[in-house]
Design goal:
Length: 113
Amino acid sequence: MPYLNADRGKSGGYHIGHTLLWSSGKSRLEAIRYHVETSALEKIMFARLLSSERDEYSSEETEHRFDEGLQIYGYSPEDVSKARNKMAGFLAGWRHAVSVRRASMEQSADTEQ
């Protein structure tokens, strides 16, 4: 992640919420063996997409505030939007591939019996 000279008035460091999302995104991508180069912002957005699916209080306003909070690192709204869309597309494709693989395995198991 880009190092901050200040974190909303604090001396040095990162915003803890963003750091946790970056770490979560990094470990989740490693867990599914996704070895394509991803930026820190893409890792954050991947974890954010996954967590917002489970968050019943998530709203457009919440996401807008979250996106604005990433500007502290120098990311533009366009950078954030591109990263969110890229990781949303990846997530949709990955889930589709998993469901196809699962269906194929179930079909194979049925034909063996």
